[in-house]
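Structure tokens please, single chain.
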Amino acid sequence: MSPFDPRSVTRRRTTAPTTCPELRCWAFSFASRGDRVPGRLLLPETGAGPFPTVLLAHGAGGSKDASYMDASAGPWARRGLAVASIDFPLHGERSEAKLFALVASELARPDPSGTGLLADFAAQAISDLENCLSALCEWPEIDPNRLGYAGFSLGSIIGATFCAGEPRVRAAALALGGAGLVSGPLDPAGPVARFAPRPLLFVNANDDETIPREAARALFDAAAEPKQQLWFEGTHDALPGAALKAMWQFLQQNLA
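Here you go.
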């Protein structure tokens, strides 16, 4: 785990997303491996906590403020979970188009090896997630003993490796991820089994045009029990509400 400096954390009250204006919203940031990482925390409308908390991660090309993130984070917070999100490296407020294009070109190779810029990206992202949990645990509204993780696409693939090495995460819901898309140490099929004996949920779409069905099954097969995989009608960019509800129910049950 990378060193965390609590003195680097800033936090301010901000406007909640228009889809859930009744929720309490905080903008925060912290230092991670020399980068400044911006984040957002949604708290239930009432109550002092401490609340069970989910770290929710976006997909490639997305951000902590993406509409599909609001579609998950808002309803989950209304039902009693605190939900935190950060911008991954080269995304959102940290966007750098040229560097992102270089990372994407490495990923597009016939057999991407997870070296070079791609490896640096993953290492930074995992460090950012670790330090985000450390920042959250500084606040009285957050229950450090009831921390979960959820991710979409890239957030699911990176999250499988992150969660395997992060003992503070008690349960994880990984949506639209897969194994075998990157070879070498960045393939989540290697570390994901280490998440056991904590519960793990995989959510996938029947018509996912980005993650092949065999890749989704390979990641599930690589994980150890207890685990569950749910399939829903939908595409990579359009998971149905039933899938988001299933993720919330799983997280609430295992963080309660």
